[in-house]
Every structure is written in structure tokens, then in C-alpha cells.
Write a structure and sequence with these properties.
The protein is α/β, with parallel strands linked by helices. Helices cover 40% and strands 23% of the residues. Bound molecules: adenosine-5'-triphosphate.
Length: 277
């Protein structure tokens, strides 16, 4: 079922910079989609169109059929949760509890429901007991989880993550990958993430779009896109490293490979066939 549709979108910044050119993307409910591309490709610009932080110069973006535009902004923000690259840009309350409560209070959720929802979201991200802590004194990985809990608490249809693993150590990366996969699988929440870390893509994404100089130059399943190695090289990206994938999987004993959905199996399959092609 179609969840997000981006149709013929162009985006021009005020200084005349054409950051997105004729973008057409359809994302289905439950998908895990990676948008990969080098620096300056337009990933962040595209993401800001998903929740209305930016409006397309031309073309349309819809979420569950609802156009992303100023008059629908509050409804869109309930459907689309954003996790920024730098958690410090997102966390501004003095306790973890207040941080997760912030969006809920804006939705007029109060009383027992408020407490229940906060406890639920913190439990999912593994931060039960952190309610009174200051988000600013947490580790990078913990901050990312607080940001994720704040978004989850709003029960969005889709979570959009900009460079989710940037600045995390290998343990933090594998832990976050497992968490995001289980949120997708168990809660049915669609995930879209932008990255130029190709190593995490087979562990997290079912579908991939390659973005370069504001244009989608290729899209398909993870295997289909990573078979196009000439295109990857042309835009300055490389294939995921087998060693890195194995390290990520092996790094964390708690990481249950079976809970990483098809992508790990798929990654193994395409790495194998790549080697013996
Ligand atoms: N506020 C702005 N005003 C003018 N141009 C901008 C602005 N923000 C971004 N750009 C330009 O738009 C293009 C796309 O930038 P964007 O930040 O979306 O790329 P990105 O793929 O997210 O890059 P990175 O991986 O480095 O974060 C770049 O050429 C960038 O210089």
C-alpha cells in the first residue's frame, strides 16, 4: 500500500541553487528505504520535504494521500517523525521525560495516557529508568535513542532518519540497526534513512535509491542497486565491505541475526554472487 508519493518534485533554494530535479519516488507501507548519495546530493533537502520543513518549488509530496503543504502541516507531522543527524539539534528539554513528553503535550495527550506512552516509548528504545536524566549528558547513542523515543511516542506511520549511524561506534551502530529493524518489524513503522555509509545499507534497507546532484539515478531492491557498481563508482560511492558487515554483525553478542530481516540473508546472497560473478 502506497504511503509516500513524491511526484515530479523540484526544489530551488533562495539563492537559485537547484537542489532537487524531477524527483519521483513511491514508498510503500512497511518499507525500509535507504536514500544514498555523496555529500551535497540532496538527501537532507529531500527529507525536509517529507515532513513539510520545506515545500517543493514544483511538484507534490503526499503522505497517505494527504499533500504535504502548510495547511496540512500538523496532520503530516503526526504521520512523519524525523530523527536528525545531530541529536543536539533535536533535544532541548532538561529531562528525558520532558523530551519525550514534548510532542505528546502538543497533541494534547495528558494524564495517565501521557505517562503510559512515555514509558512505552522508552522501554522500546531500552532507556527505561532514564526519565530524570538530562538528555545533554547522555552518550551519542543514548541521545539518538531519546530522539527516536520522542518520535515513536507520537506513533508515526513513517520515521525518517538522516545519517542515523553517524558518530556512533560499532557497538552503537549494530545496536541501532537491531532497534530500527525491530521497530519496523514489530510496529510496522516504515523507515526511510539517508546515508553515505553504504556498509549499513544491506543490514537495514529493503529498497535503495541513489541520489546524485539532485537527481535519482537508480532505484530498486538492495541487491539490484548494489549490482550497479559502475554507477556507484561514478558518483563516488563504493560497495559495502563484507568485512565491515561481518564486524557489525559479530560485534554485539546481543544482536540477534534472525531478527535482522531478509536484508542480512540478502546481503550474504549478493556478496556471495558478487564474489563469484
Ligand atoms: N540553505 C541552503 N541554501 C542554498 N543551498 C543549499 C542550502 N542547503 C543546502 N544547499 C545546497 O543544496 C544541495 C543539496 O544539499 P543537501 O544538504 O540536501 O545534500 P546532502 O545530500 O544532504 O549532503 P550531505 O551528505 O553533505 O549532508 C547542495 O548543493 C547544497 O550546497
Amino acid at each position: 500500500m502506497e504511503l509516500i508519493k513524491v511526484s515530479e518534485v523540484n526544489y530551488v533554494y533562495n539563492d537559485g541553487n537547484l537542489a532537487l530535479k524531477n524527483i519521483n519516488i513511491t514508498i510503500s507501507k512497511g518499507d525500509k528505504v535507504a536514500i544514498i548519495g555523496p555529500n551535497g546530493a540532496g538527501k537532507s533537502t529531500l527529507f525536509q520535504l517529507f515532513n513539510g520543513l520545506l515545500q517543493p518549488t514544483s511538484g507534490t509530496v503526499t503522505v497517505e494521500g494527504l499533500q504535504v503543504c502548510k495547511k496540512n502541516l500538523s496532520k503530516i507531522r503526526c504521520k512523519v517523525g524525523m530523527v536528525f543527524q545531530d541529536s543536539d539539534d533535536q533535544l532541548f528539554n532538561s529531562t528525558v521525560f520532558q523530551e519525550v513528553a514534548y510532542g505528546l503535550l502538543n497533541m494534547h495527550i495528558t494524564g495517565e495516557k501521557l505517562y503510559e506512552t512515555i514509558a512505552w516509548a522508552l522501554e522500546i528504545v531500552g532507556l527505561k529508568g532514564y526519565e530524570k536524566r538530562s538528555p545533554h549528558n547522555l552518550s551519542g547513542g543514548e541521545k539518538k535513542k531519546v530522539a527516536l523515543a520522542s518520535v515513536l511516542a507520537m506513533k508515526p506511520k513513517v520515521i525518517v532518519l538522516d545519517e542515523p549511524t553517524a558518530s556512533l561506534d560499532p557497538h552503537g551502530v549494530s545496536n541501532l540497526i537491531e532497534l530500527l529493524n525491530s521497530i519496523n518489524k514489530e510496529l510496522g513503522i516504515t523507515m526511510i534513512f539517508a546515508t553515505h555509509d553504504v556498509d549499513i545499507v544491506p543490514l537495514l534497507a529493503d529498497r535503495v535509491y541513489l541520489l546524485s546532484k539532485g537527481e535519482i539515478i537508480c532505484g530498486g531492491t538492495t541487491e539490484e542497486v548494489f549490482y550497479r557498481k559502475e554507477i556507484l563508482r561514478k558518483i563516488g560511492l563504493r560497495l559495502p565491505r563484507v568485512a565491515h558487515l561481518i564486524e557489525l554483525i559479530a560485534h554485539d553478542e546481543a544482536l540477534e541475526i534472525d531478527r535482522l530481516p531478509l536484508t542480512v540473508g540478502k546481503a550474504k546472497k549478493w556478496l556471495y554472487s558478487w564474489k563469484y560473478k
